[in-house]
Amino acid sequence: MHDPVAHRAVITPDRPALIRAADGAHWSYRSLDDRVTAVADRLATRGVSAGDRLGVFTESTVGTLVLVHAALRLGAVFVPIGETLTDREARDRLARVELDAAACTDATRARATAAVDTLPLYTLNEPSSAAADDAAPDRAEEGSTTRESSVRQPHEWSLTDPLCVLFTSGTTGAPKPVPLTAGNVFSSAVASAFRLGLDPADRWLVTLSVHHMGGLAPVYRSALYGTTVVLRAGFDADGVVADLERHDVTLVSLVPTMLRRMLADHDTLADSLRVVLLGGAPASETLIERCHERAVPVYPTYGMTEAASQVTTATPALTRERPGTVGRPLFGTTVTIVDEDGRSVGQGDAGEIVVSGPTITPGYLIDDERGGPFGPHGFHTGDVGRLDETGSLTVLGRLDDRILSGGENVDPGEVAAVLTAHPDVAAAAVVGLDDDEWGERVAALLAADGAADSLDDESIRAFVRERLAGFKRPKTVAYAEAIPRTVSGTVDRDAVRERLLADGHEL
Description:
Layout: H1 4-11, E1 16-20, E2 26-28, H2 29-45, E3 53-57, H3 62-74, E4 77-80, H4 87-94, E5 101-104, H5 109-115, E6 121-123, E7 139-140, E8 162-167, E9 177-181, H6 182-196, E10 203-206, H7 213-225, E11 228-231, H8 237-246, E12 251-254, H9 256-264, E13 275-278, H10 285-293, E14 298-304, E15 309-313, H11 316-321, E16 328-329, E17 334-338, E18 351-356, E19 374-375, E20 378-387, E21 393-398, E22 403-405, E23 408-410, H12 412-420, E24 425-435, E25 439-448, H13 457-465, E26 476-480, H14 493-503, E27 505-506
Parallel strand pairs: 1-11, 3-4, 3-5, 5-6, 10-11, 10-12, 12-13, 13-14, 25-26
Antiparallel strand pairs: 1-2, 6-7, 8-9, 14-15, 15-16, 17-18, 18-20, 19-20, 20-21, 22-23, 24-25, 26-27
Helix pairs in contact: 1-2, 2-3, 8-9
């Protein structure tokens, strides 16, 4: 695989590659290529070479995006550690992946130094504009070398070469380091373009952290497509809405909580938008319907780090036709539903979601985890779902989250989907709590769509009585302003359980 930025600098040099949303500073593919060359050269002079793992302790800035491409140019493996982790969390991750060098900013330097004190450390500067890129050169810190640069030609990537290592969210255990190959990322970009469409004038707003696949995927994809990244540092609902308009954004990736906050105070979103890719957590039918009513082009998706982003994606038309679906598998991807013995189940039956195809990681980085989740049908996701007669997927929850109540299996995702269909419920998280009589009892934490006092037990009780069998109905409930979530947008189930144990009451 060729270096996409170097390629674009030749064939579309003047096309906009990157816009910083905060101030409108912009870089063409030619100027981005110049910046990538300079950073790659400085990394090379300090000992970074093909195959090295580069740990990244930075914010989601222009400098970080340049570093993504500089690592690619050298053949180095991009390993985002994150800028918001505690020292303990950072050390836990570093214990699971061996680094050869690290990068930071002035703001994250102390944490990076403490975590990787024996490695070469590279400090990034944030350029004020394309014209000012070289005004304040990036610098080396402790452990740097000073040999001559060996950068002559961009690294030529094999599709099997590891391109990056990302960490899972850790909602079901310690975060696992997931190597993704150049082929995984390239195949994902191609399949996504087939599903979402592609326009040379596309502009993808990145407001999700580039330390997760939801933020990093558009960075790789836009360079491959020759389109534009609009980079926003962090999320603010009103600010994102304004950026969509200001920069004529055509695509944006969001988690449901973000989109719900944006639509709380705005009737609709920018006319330029053609895709709102919605993932990271289940989207309620109420939110999807709100998007339809307000002409927001919503594309619910099911994906994961291990699949380099999207597995299935639903179009707006499909969400109208089949409420609750996350769509059909993308090009080249196969989804199989299996039972406890790993055998495929019948159409419409629930079971574990297993995924195969060219986007799937070759295996976790840690030796004792390698190969564990793989079987004859592919990668075992640990998620529960079902396929309908059209091949469309509905996700019901996590296999480990299944609740066994009175001898009956309860899928929390199914219960949560019913609860969020209630007009006053914005979000719901369903877990099992220990129970002397039932083994486990179904419990639900609910966030109101509006004033917190809009929810009441009688309304919830009557709503679920009509829609759920008795063994599926929540026996314990609590109300909250928001559902606790991890940094990647998934439900923090431990925090939900703690809240229910502290504040829950019988429904």
